[in-house]
Structure formats: structure tokens, C-alpha cells
Design brief:
The complex is a heterodimer of chains A (469) and B (589). Chain A is built from 14 helices and 21 strands. With 469 residues, chain A is an alpha/beta fold. In chain A, strands 9, 11, 14, 15, 16, 17, 18, 19, 20 and 21 form a ten-stranded mixed β-sheet that branches. Chain A has a seven-stranded antiparallel β-sheet with strand order 1-7-4-5-6-3-2, with no helix packed on it. A two-stranded antiparallel ribbon of chain A has the order 8-10. In chain A, strand 2 and strand 3 form a beta hairpin. In chain A, helix 11 runs antiparallel to helix 12. The longest helix of chain A has 25 residues. Chain B folds into four domains: 66 residues, Beta Barrel (Elongation Factor Tu (Ef-tu), domain 3); 68 residues, RNA polymerase II/Efflux pump adaptor protein, barrel-sandwich hybrid domain (OB fold (Dihydrolipoamide Acetyltransferase, E2P)), CATH 2.40.50; 237 residues, P-loop containing nucleotide triphosphate hydrolases (Rossmann fold), CATH 3.40.50.300; 129 residues, Orthogonal Bundle (Bovine Mitochondrial F1-ATPase, ATP Synthase Beta Chain, Chain D, domain3). Helices cover 33% and strands 24% of the residues of chain B. Chain B contains 16 helices and 26 strands. The model of chain B has no long low-confidence stretch (mean pLDDT 91). The chains are: A alpha/beta (469), B alpha+beta (589). Chain A: It comes from Haloarchaeobius iranensis. Chain A: Keywords: ATP synthesis, Cell membrane, Hydrogen ion transport, Ion transport, Membrane, Transport.
């Protein structure tokens, strides 16, 4: 392999070098600094005679005399089933002190697009045991459903609760003891603090989840550029486990905001024309290349369900990161600061939350016949109660009609009974829907215009008002 | 250069100079603008988009990882074209018209590999050709010489291609032919085959463009009732994420009364395309009862597929639509979402280091959008038949902010605007189309049709609904301040009526079978039932009945159930309900 000592320019995470052979776009590069450190990078732009290299581990210590080696291949992830139970750094090297990884195969981390013709439409209900999700924003196998959170909100607790509790109910019975219906978890951390990382690791170890997990850790003080690689390593591993080995994989990526910051950093260093708020114009395509690596394939056992977590800068869901994410993912779970300060656990605000694949995963034979109607009715009633709260601040409760007061009570109870279940409670879908009916039964029957009449007859509790009083 | 053309017609070779994502430059290519080229050792398809001296810039329709300078580039010397002919319906293509099912077979993988070509239409399959002209007849470009049954729903017309001289037919007979075999010969020496090739960026010729006067009936109450689209019209659906753009587009694709539907999934979700692929073969076409796929052509460039192919997919789609228009069909084209197309332009433009316009979009954004939408219309074809293309473009404005360039430039062109509203979506009011912001400029043109085909007083009843909803909007502002009970009784009643307009008429559930498609008669029926309640209720109020008692009659909430009553029983149900309302209200005074 030829070595070059031809670096002409170093700028932020980028290194430019002159070459006299033809180097492929996206190929991997090693740079050895005078002090003997080896840093890895990737070709961002290749023209005859000159290449631009993006260095993952930071350009610190590189000078114009450093030697550059071109590896002649694009970035690969060594994959094997033995990765389960392992903890790796953001570049895929083991950091748990375990044995070296002996790969079955080395896979390109960019990952080709799934042919839409080969996809299987996701419609198997995943029970997370969380009413705000199962009842109102149902998750299905093969979906990508992000958590839109903000600094200071307990999104990590919610993600852990999902990872712990997620099952596919039909398979509960008859499966072997060690939880055959549980998910394998691939966890990709980008720029999270060491403290957060410990929180995740402790929980994984405490619940025994680690042995069915693969953990990729890029911490806050690790090089930012490496963050652009970490989720691709995680998803390549997930694809191998799901589509080659038949696992149902749950991929948790946190925090996507840090990932996007890294993209912006590279874009700025390359002096690209910036898009909104300085993020590169290709961020939509780039994020799609991550998020679209979820799903099911026809005739293949496994599946990839993605739960990316992002923190919205300034709690603003029109910020480019949540905005572009929302356009790609199949819904979102929205965390809410007001609900958090009221002490709700988890503080999920169902109104702006959405699961696009819900309608195909629920109903008779899948969950329960009344699921769709109950969910719609709870939405409509809670939205009405929310509106009235604004009004009540101005005119007071006495000025409202009896009907309006019922809706106000409903909204309060909805939050305290339905949403506020705690991070350790695991409710099955029947329980969730029954709580829904308890709440709906506080409203007059004639108000329930989103539910079939037969179902109202079956589930509506006539004397509920008395009970609540 | 289309997918079916033999790539041995290669003329010039060049060498790659540099690679940066989807943009590759090459020297010594000797290319014209927009020539299709094959890049690198793997032969990745691309298109020339800039020429400077000896250096050509190419956008590549496939992933360029590991492509290196020094690799060869082959020039085909022809612009990006599509294969037109029988076999396009009931097919799903990628952005450069490669059938995805064929790709899966050829690649033997669920993932999309690189450098694989597949013709847009099956070149081996034979079709049963029925002549429509005889030996000795004179034919001109555009004229139909015969038909083949493309699907159970659609007869595919074999036409003389636009560029031909035409002349007397010297040979033609019925039989089974492949798309490349001649089915007719002319005295000019020209042979006519089923397959035509057409460059995607050039509109197919037509004789004249006319004013559209027939609505594209969508079966969606808020669209047919308040904001109708004409056959040959253009519409935009902008909305923030989660407000139901795709569900609305899909409802239109399923239920609108077009002959042919071209559905372009441009930069959207893979699972959504899969849903269409799974659903459409199962669903019946409301016009004919045959499978929906028999009238549908799908083009999918999902968000993770190469960005350059996203730029081309809308052109591929509209060229296919124009071909069916030439046969005299009414075509509806859905593009979901045009924002992704605009972003693809922006991405390519920024890699070319062009001077950016507003928000980084290229300065030619407005021109490209209007060129595209102008390919819609109600046409007189060159063969004398009439056909139309209606274009419905979804727009995904960042942050739901309609002041951004793609929305604004689109609104300057289209005549129907269906504004989706996050607030309505949050309270699960679907379709979440905001009735105050949306508009249709086709109303006046279409009113005669509605008077004739639905009800003579349709425009007046609609105007009543619009006025009531407007009034509700104003009253709601007051209610926010003082509460509903502070309003005088007549205004409280107006709010009640408006609530039924919203809940029983405007809301429509795409996931309940009876309610997915609402025929115009039923749309009118529900509206008149609510108006009936309104008229009777105000009479009762004038007679001194307290507004609470009017609101509490048992019959009124039944208005919400008309929509979910089977279409055949709806009229009877509505009549009975109107009678009940009259009876119950009159009992009160």
C-alpha cells in the first residue's frame, strides 16, 4: 500500500492531500501523525490529483508531514451474531474488555435502499405497555417512530421502558421461558454524556437486556465527526441480525440532534452553501438514509423497528431537525415540558403525537375491535378539554355549561389516569382500553360520535358518573 | 436514451475527473446538454447537466461510493427518455423507469443494487393487436391504428408517433406482436410499432388547450363540496408533517373518476409505497369494479434512493401521463411530494456551486415548477380526441410555514389550494383541510356541471355552508373571550349548525369502508339534511323555543350517522331523519 506525505491543507475535520493514483469516493483512509497516532477518515471528494478527507477522530496532531494511506475500500462493519451482548465504541471497536470480534462477514455501512417492491407492510402490533403509545399512537413491527423530546425531559427513561417492555402479544404464550418474543436491541448513542451512558448501561445490566443487545457508544467528548458513522454501524448490524438471522430488532438511536450537529460541522468545514439554520441542504436525504433502514421484508422472518430520539432545540418542533425527521418517520411521540412539570410520567403529549401505521395494526383480530374508535374519541375529547382550559382561565368554571365542565374534568382525569402510569408500570392493551372506557363513560353517551353504536353498548358504563363522583 | 435502448450505440468515451456524491465530472466526453451517460466501471446511469470547455458535469442516478477518477464514462448521445407502450399500467417504476419487480429479480435481493438496467416495458411479451384502420387509409401523426387490451380496464391505443410523416397504410393485420415488432407499415416507408420513446423533459405535442368544465369527482366531501378540482386542473396540497397529505393523495388515487392514475412517490417513505403496492391490486376501482392497479402506474423514488433520480421522477411520471392523454383518456397525476423534488434540485444545484436563490433553492425553481404544472390541462390532441391531465402536487413546507419558496411558487401556478392544518389533524379532524384558507378557482366553471348532474340548487346550498362556516369562525373568536353561553340564542344555534357541518359533513374517515368514498349525491344529501335542521331550528327559535331544547332533540346527533350509512340506504335514512327533525322540533312549540 502506497503512503503519501502530501497533505496540503488541514481545516477543521477536513484534510486535503495530493495523490498520483485514482481514489474512490467514500473510501477509507488512515492518517498516521508524527507521534504515531493512527486516525481514520473517509473520502468526501475525489478528483484526479487531489482528495478531501473527513477525519473521524479529529484532526488534532496532524501536520503536513503526516502519512496518508488509502485502504482501497469503503467503510465496512464486521458482523456476527456474537455481537449480541457486546459494547463497542462509536467506530465499532469493542470497549467492554471482551474478546476480539470474529466476523462472519464485513458489510458496507452505507447500506443499499430496500426495494419498495420487496417490503412487507408493517402491521403487527407491538405492545409497549405504555397507554399513551399503545392506546393512542400504536407502534408496529418495522415502524420508525421517533421520540421528540427536549433538554431536561425524561426521554431516556421512556426509551428504556420501551426497550424493557416491548413484546408482540400473540407470541407471549408458547414461547420459551427466556422471552422468545422479546426484541434484540441495537443501541446507538451519539454524543450522549457519560452519565447518560451509565444510566443506559446500568439499566441494560440490571434487567439482563444486555445479553440481547449490541451497544455502540459515541460519548459527548468523542470526536463529533465519528457520530456520522455510529448510526450506520448500528443499522448495518441491525440489518444483519434482522434479515440474515431472523431477529426482531429494536434500534434506539440517541441523540439525533448531535448527529445533525456533526453533519453541519462537516458541511461548514467544506464551505458548502448552507440550508436552513446552517444545516446542509442534503440533510433530508442523509437522515432518510438512516430512518428508511427500518422495516420488514417479504419472506424474511426478522424486522427492524426504529426509535430515534432527538431533543428539539428550544422545544421547537419546526426546527429543521425535528421537522425533517417528522417528514421521513412514520409519526412521532412528543414529550411535553408542561406535563413534565405537572409530574406526569411519562410526559407524553398525545395531541401532537402520531403513529401513521396505527390504523393497520389495530382493531378486531389484532388488538380489539373498539381500539380505533376509543382512540379517536379520546383524542377529540381531550382536544376539546384542552381548548376549554384556555377559556376557563378567562371566564371561570361557573360560566361554563355542564357539558363543558364534563370535558374539563375529562381532560384532567385523562392525564392522571391514562397517561401518568409511571416508568415501571406495564399495562397490557386490554387494560389500556378499559381505562379509556372508564374515562369516556364520564361523558354523556350522545357525545361519543367516533365509536360504533354496538361498541358503545358493549363497553360504556352507565353508572360511571356516579362512581367518579 | 430510455431503459430499453441498446446501450451498444455508444459513441464517445470520457474519463472521470472528480466525484462528489451524486455529482461527477468527466473530461473528453463530447456530450450535449442532458445526454444520458454511463459512469464508471459499473456503468451507473447519469445525465449531463453542465458543460464547461472539455469538462462535463454529470448527475448520477445511483449511489457513487467507491467510484474513482480515471474510470471511463460512456456517452449515449441521447437525452433521458422513457419507453411508452402497453405494460406501463399495473407496474411500479423507480425514478428512471426501471420496473422494481424486474430489478428485484435481476438483483436477486431485497435491496437495490447498482448498475442494473431493465427496460421500462416488457420487450418479450406479446400483445393481441386489433387494427382500427385498413390498408389504404391515410394516417397522420397521433392517429390510432389499432388497440391492444393493456389491462381489463384500459384499451391501449397504438398511435402513429408524433415525429412521423404519416401516409397511406400499406400493411396492417390483427395478431400477436411484441412491442418492438411493426404492426403497420406506411407508404412513406415508416413502420409503426407499439413502443414509442420520448424524452422526459419535452412535453408531447397537442393541438390545443381548452378550459376545463368537468370536475374530477374525488368522493371526498370537502373537496367535491367546497373546493372542487376540474379534469385538467392543477391543485396543491401543502401541509406540515402528520397532517394527512399522503392519505389525501392516496384517497384521490383510489377514488377519483379519472381513467388513468399516475402516482409518483417522490422522496417519501418506503412503507407508504409498499402500502400502495399491497392495497391497489385488492381494491376495486369505483368506476369499473376492476382492480385499481389496472388503471394505475406507480413511480417510486423513496427518500433513501439516489437524489438525482428524484429530480427525474416527476418528469418520467408526467410523460407517461401525456401518452395516455394522447389516447383520449382523463389522467390524474399525483406527485407526493413536490418539495422533495425541489430539494433534489437544490442539492444538485449546491453541488454545482451555483449562486443560490431564496433559502438556497436555485434561481430557476419557479421556472421548473411552472413548466411542470403547465403540462397539465384539458387538451385537444393532435389526433382530434380530447384528453386531460390533472396534476395534484403535495407540498411539504418546512415547519408547516406556507411562506417558504416551494409553496409560494406553487401557489402562483395552481388554481386549487387545499391547505392542510396541523391543528385540525391534532384533534383528528380528517381530512385536515382548512376550509377558511383553501380555495378553488374552478367553482364557476364547474357549477353548470353540478347544477345539471347533482342538484339545481347545489351552488346556493354550498354558499350557505360557506357562510355558516365563516360566521362560526368569527363567533369562535368571541367565544374564546366570553364563553359560549354569553352569546345570544341565534348565534349559539349557528355554532351548533356549524358543528354539524364540520363533524357530519366535512369530516370523512378514510379508514371506514362506507365513508372512504362519498358520491356527489350523498355529499349533497348530507348538506341539505343539515340545512334542513338549520331552517327548522331557526323557525323553532323564532317561535320562542329555548336554544338548549333545540340542541337536545334526539334526532340531531343522527346527522353524524348519515356518512356511515350505506350509499343505497342513505337517501331513505336522510328522508326519515329530516322528518324526525321536523316532528321533534315542531313538538316544542
Amino acid at each position: 500500500m502506497k503512503e503519501y506525505q502530501t497533505i496540503t491543507e488541514i481545516s477543521g475535520p477536513l484534510v486535503f492531500a495530493e495523490v498520483d493514483e485514482d481514489i474512490g469516493y467514500d473510501e477509507i483512509v488512515e492518517i498516521e501523525t508524527p507521534s504515531g497516532d493512527i486516525k481514520r477518515g473517509q473520502i468526501l471528494e475525489s478528483s484526479s490529483g487531489l482528495v478531501a478527507i473527513q477525519v473521524f477522530e479529529g484532526t488534532e496532531g496532524i501536520d503536513t508531514n503526516s502519512s496518508v494511506r488509502f485502504m482501497g475500500e469503503t467503510m465496512k462493519m464486521p458482523v456476527t451474531e456474537d455481537l449480541l451482548g457486546r459494547v463497542l465504541d462509536g467506530s465499532g471497536n469493542p470497549i467492554d474488555g471482551g474478546p476480539d470480534i470474529v466476523p462472519d462477514e464485513r458489510r458496507d455501512i452505507v447500506g443499499a435502499a430496500i426495494n419498495p417492491y420487496a417490503r412487507e407492510y408493517p402491521e403487527e402490533f407491538i405492545q409497549t405497555g405504555i397507554s399513551g403509545i399503545d392506546g393512542m399512537n400504536t407502534l408496529v413491527r418495522g415502524q420508525k417512530l421517533p421520540i421528540f423530546s427536549a433538554s431536561g425531559l425524561p426521554h431516556n427513561d421512556l426509551a428504556l421502558q420501551i426497550a424493557r417492555q416491548a413484546t408482540v402479544p400473540e407470541e407471549d404464550e408458547g414461547e420459551d421461558e427466556d422471552g422468545g418474543s422479546e426484541f434484540a436491541v441495537v443501541f446507538g448513542a451519539m454524543g450522549i454524556t457519560a452519565e447518560e451512558a451509565n444510566e443506559f448501561m446500568d439499566d441494560f445490566e440490571r434487567t439482563g437486556a444486555l445479553e440481547r443487545s449490541v451497544v455502540f457508544m459515541n460519548l459527548a467528548d468523542d470526536p463529533a465527526v465519528e457520530r456520522t458513522v455510529t448510526p450506520r454501524l448500528a443499522l448495518t448490524t441491525a440489518e444483519y441480525l434482522a434479515f440474515d438471522k431472523g431477529y426482531h430488532v429494536l434500534v434506539i438511536l440517541t441523540d439525533m440532534t448531535n448527529y445533525c450537529e456533526a453533519l453541519r460541522e462537516i458541511g461548514a468545514a467544506r464551505e458548502e452553501v448552507p440550508g436552513r439554520r446552517g444545516y446542509p441542504g442534503y440533510m433530508y436525504t442523509d437522515l432518510a438514509q438512516l430512518y428508511e433502514r427500518a422495516g420488514r421484508l417479504k419472506g424474511v422472518e426478522g424486522s427492524i423497528t426504529q426509535i430515534p430520539i432527538l431533543t428539539m432545540p428550544g422545544d421547537d418542533d419546526t426546527h429543521p431537525i425535528p421537522d425533517l425527521t417528522g417528514y421521513i418517520t412514520e409519526g412521532q411521540i412528543m414529550m411535553d415540558r408542561d406535563l413534565e412539570s405537572q409530574g406526569l410520567k411519562p410526559p407524553i403529549n398525545v395531541l401532537p403525537s402520531l403513529s401513521r401505521l396505527m390504523d393497520d395494526g389495530i382493531g378486531e383480530g389484532l388488538t380489539r375491535a373498539d381500539h380505533g374508535g376509543v382512540s379517536d374519541q379520546l383524542y377529540a375529547a381531550y382536544a376539546e378539554g384542552q381548548d376549554l382550559r384556555d377559556l376557563v382561565n378567562i371566564v371561570g368554571r361557573e360560566a361554563l355549561s355542564e357539558r363543558d365542565n364534563k370535558y374539563l374534568d375529562f381532560a384532567d382525569q385523562f392525564e392522571s389516569e391514562f397517561i401518568d402510569q409511571g416508568f415501571d408500570t406495564n399495562r397490557d392493551i386490554d387494560e389500556t382500553l378499559n381505562i379509556g372506557w372508564d374515562l369516556l363513560s364520564t361523558l354523556p353517551k350522545t357525545e361519543l360520535n367516533r365509536v360504533d353504536e354496538e361498541l358503545i353498548e358493549k363497553y360504556y358504563q352507565e353508572d360511571a358518573e356516579a362512581v367518579e363522583a | 436514451m430510455s431503459q430499453a435502448t441498446d446501450s451498444e450505440a455508444v459513441r464517445e468515451d470520457g474519463v472521470i475527473e472528480s466525484v462528489s456524491g451524486p455529482v461527477v465530472t468527466a473530461t473528453d466526453l463530447g456530450a450535449k446538454m442532458n445526454d444520458v451517460v454511463y459512469v464508471g466501471d459499473e456503468g451507473l446511469m447519469g445525465e449531463v447537466i453542465e458543460i464547461e470547455g472539455n469538462l462535463s458535469t454529470i448527475q448520477v442516478y445511483e449511489e457513487t461510493s467507491a467510484v474513482a477518477p480515471g474510470e471511463p464514462v460512456e456517452n449515449t448521445g441521447e437525452p433521458l427518455s422513457v419507453d411508452l407502450g402497453p405494460g406501463m399500467l399495473d407496474t411500479i417504476y423507480d425514478g428512471v423507469q426501471r420496473p422494481l419487480d424486474v430489478l428485484q429479480e435481476k438483483m436477486d435481493s431485497a435491496f437495490l443494487d447498482r448498475g442494473v438496467d431493465a427496460p421500462g416495458i416488457d420487450l418479450e411479451k406479446t400483445w393481441e393487436f386489433q387494427p382500427e384502420v385498413e390498408v389504404g387509409d391515410e394516417v397522420e401523426p397521433g392517429d390510432v391504428v389499432g388497440v391492444v387490451e393493456e389491462t381489463v380496464t384500459i384499451d391501449h391505443k397504438v398511435m402513429v408517433p408524433p415525429g412521423y410523416d404519416g401516409g397511406e397504410v400499406t400493411a396492417i393485420e390483427a395478431g400477436n406482436f411484441t412491442v418492438e415488432e411493426p404492426v403497420a407499415e406506411l407508404d412513406s416507408g415508416e413502420e409503426i410499432q407499439m413502443r414509442q420513446e420520448w424524452p422526459v423533459r419535452r412535453p408531447r405535442p397537442s393541438a390545443d388547450k381548452q378550459t376545463p368544465t368537468t370536475p374530477l369527482v374525488s368522493g371526498q366531501r370537502i373537496l367535491d363540496g367546497l373546493f372542487p378540482l376540474a379534469k385538467g386542473g392543477t391543485a396543491a396540497i401543502p401541509g406540515p408533517f402528520g397532517s394527512g397529505k399522503t392519505v389525501t393523495q392516496q384517497s384521490l388515487a383510489k377514488f377519483s373518476d379519472a381513467d388513468i392514475v399516475v402516482y409518483i412517490g417522490c422522496g417519501e417513505r418506503g412503507n407508504e409505497m409498499t402500502e400502495v403496492i399491497d392495497d391497489f391490486p385488492e381494491l376495486p376501482d369505483p368506476q369499473t369494479g376492476n382492480a385499481l392497479m389496472a388503471r394505475t402506474c406507480l413511480i417510486a423514488n423513496t427518500s433513501n434512493m439516489p437524489v438525482a433520480a428524484r429530480e427525474s421522477c416527476v418528469y418520467t411520471g408526467i410523460t407517461i401521463a401525456e401518452f395516455y392523454r394522447d389516447m383520449g383518456y382523463d389522467v390524474a397525476l399525483m406527485a407526493d411530494s413536490t418539495s422533495r423534488w425541489a430539494e433534489a434540485m437544490r442539492e444538485i444545484s449546491s453541488r454545482l456551486e451555483e449562486m443560490p436563490g431564496e433559502e438556497g433553492y436555485p434561481a430557476y425553481l419557479a421556472a421548473r415548477l411552472s413548466q411542470f404544472y403547465e403540462r397539465a390541462g384539458y387538451f385537444e390532441n393532435i389526433n382530434g380526441t380530447e384528453g386531460s391531465i390533472s396534476v395534484i402536487g403535495a407540498v411539504s413546507p418546512p415547519g408547516g410555514d406556507f411562506s417558504e419558496p416551494v409553496t409560494q411558487n406553487t401557489l402562483r401556478i395552481v388554481k386549487t389550494f387545499w391547505a392542510l392544518d396541523a391543528d385540525l389533524a391534532e384533534r383528528r379532524h380528517f381530512p385536515a383541510i382548512n376550509w377558511n384558507e383553501s380555495y378553488s378557482l374552478y367553482q364557476d366553471q364547474l357549477d353548470p356541471w353540478y347544477r345539471e348532474n347533482v342538484a339545481e340548487d347545489y351552488p346556493e346550498v354550498r354558499q350557505w355552508a360557506v357562510d355558516t362556516l365563516d360566521e362560526e369562525g368569527e363567533l369562535q373568536e368571541i367565544v374564546q373571550l366570553v364563553g359560549k353561553d354569553a352569546l345570544p340564542p341565534d348565534q349559539q344555534l349557528t355554532l351548533e349548525v356549524a358543528r354539524y357541518l364540520r363533524e357530519a359533513w366535512l369530516q370523512q374517515n378514510a379508514f371506514i369502508e362506507v365513508d372512504q368514498y362519498c358520491p356527489p349525491e350523498k355529499t349533497y344529501g348530507i348538506l341539505t339534511a343539515i340545512k334542513h335542521f338549520n331552517d327548522e331550528a331557526f323557525e323553532a327559535l323564532d317561535a320562542g323555543v329555548p336554544v338548549e331544547e333545540i340542541q337536545n332533540i334526539d334526532a340531531a346527533p343522527q346527522l353524524n350517522r348519515i356518512a356511515t350509512t350505506e350509499d343505497e340506504e342513505a337517501e331513505e335514512f336522510t328522508d326519515e331523519l329530516e322528518a324526525d327533525i321536523t316532528e321533534q322540533l315542531r313538538e316544542l312549540y
